[in-house]
Amino acid sequence: MELWRIFGEALEPGETRRLSLRVPMGGLPNQGQTLLDGRKRADYEMPAILVNGAKPGKTLLVTAGIHSGEYNGIPATIRVARELDPERMSGRAILLPCVNTSGFWTMHPRTLPEDDFNLNGQYPGNPDGTVGERLADFFVREIFPQVDFILDFHGGSRGERMTPLAFFPTHAPVREAALAAGMAMNIGFLIESQATKGEYSYAAASMGIPGLLVERGEGYFCDPEWVEDDRRDLLLLLDHLGISPAPAGMRDTALKRRVFREAIYLEAAREGVWHPAVKKDQAIQKGQRLGTLEDLFGDVLETVYAEHDGHVLYLNCGLAAPKGELLVAYAVAASEA
Ligand SMILES: [Zn+2]
Questions:
Q1: What is the pLDDT averaged over residues 190-219?
Q2: Residues 133, 251 share a domain
Q3: How far is the CA of 13 from the centre of ligand 1 (A)?
Q4: Cα of 64 to ligand 1 centre, how many Å?
Q5: Distance 118 CA to ligand 1 centre (A)
Q6: What does the alpha-carbon distance between residue 165 and residue 156 come to, in Å, rounded to a whole number?
Q7: 194 and 296: one domain?
Q8: Does residue 132 have a pLDDT over 90?
Q9: Are residues 42 and 9 in the same domain?
Q10: Alpha-carbon distance 239 to 192, whole Å?
Q11: pLDDT at position 2, please?
């Protein structure tokens, strides 16, 4: 087998390499990566682990920490990177455990601190743009053409309660491959997504690369069981793709897996104090009260009802709901496959 050439590196078959991946920022004046002490770095650096299997096969890209406060996928990816044995692998893995490293170290909640760019919503970026636009463009040009499948780890945002779920792309050429991969993992809810501007969803919609976005964990915490569940799902995916065999019995065959073709995302139509009336992972009926928005005197501004029978996937359990803030996300029961 020939060398694997990527990011200016050359890996032998059976080799693992750790590096600080440098994404050029083209000399943006005072706009490179923000460091913890407020200084700027000319390029954007993130940790990368490249694992080149001894035998040929598919290449999996794993990203975590695209939203910097969504933690559990980060240690899960690091652990799997340390566990993988390239001598036993057929294929390759590009593991990027902490994409938004500047957001991680500055505890910026979600987007890139440099320019408020959402790495899961503003693809394909721009090679001459801001830090985030250049990062997205780097993924499109330098990474996506190398890979056969993408797994992107996320979790609930601040104040959110979240049921573990995976989004898979609706786009015909990749839908079935992504759904089959989702079914191979230990995730109870698989939600078809129309998104096209995120990391995995842009790759799916515009470049024909199947992928999954896993949501697990909540509230910007990092509970050990979420880390373990993310780790297990990543190992199951590597097994499903034929890259690296997972230990027997890792897939939960008793878990009921449900596929939904539609989800409703209710947002605050106005600024209000949000009091949810439902919980995550709860069946709901059309017309059921989901919660109320009140003012700071306790007067009800608006009552929010379910428009369909369905199942609550995640919801805002914080109190403040600025206009446009997500209140409840639920899967529509009638679309259950
Ligand atoms: Zn996220």
A1: 97
A2: yes
A3: 34
A4: 9
A5: 9
A6: 11
A7: no
A8: yes
A9: yes
A10: 23
A11: 85
> Average pLDDT, stretch 145-171?
96
240 confidence band (pLDDT: 50, 70, 90): very high
Same domain, 253 and 268: no
335 pLDDT above the threshold of 60 = no
Q: Does 254 share its domain with 266? A: no
Identify the DSSP state of 141: I
Dist. CA 313 → ligand 1 center (Å): 14
Q: Which of 214, 235, 258 is the last residue of a domain?
A: 258
Split into its structural domains, the chain has a count of 2
Say whether both 212 and 267 belong to one domain: no
- Domain at 155, CATH number: 3.40.630.10
Q: What is the pLDDT of residues 241-286, one digit of tens each?
A: 999 999 999 999 999 999 999 999 999 999 999 999 999 999 999 9
Choose among 134, 149, 109, 122: nearest CA to 46.
134
254 and 326 fall within a common domain: no
Give residue 334 CA to ligand 1 midpoint distance, Å: 27
Asked whether residue 29 falls in the same domain as residue 139, the answer is yes
Q: How far is the CA of 298 from the centre of ligand 1 (A)?
A: 32
Ligand 1 centre to CA of 297 (Å) is 33
Beta bridge partners of 154: 215
**How far away, in angstroms, is 168 Cα from ligand 1 center?**
14
Q: 32 C-alpha to center of ligand 1: Å?
A: 23
Hey, which bits of 84-223 come out as E strands?
Answer: 90-96, 149-154, 160-162, 165-169, 189-193, 211-215
Q: Are 295 and 301 in contact (CB under 8 A)?
A: yes
Interacting residues of 121 by C-beta distance below 8 A, sequence separation 6+:
197, 198
Which of 204, 225, 258 is a domain's end point?
258
Q: Ligand 1 mean position to 1 CA, how many Å? A: 37
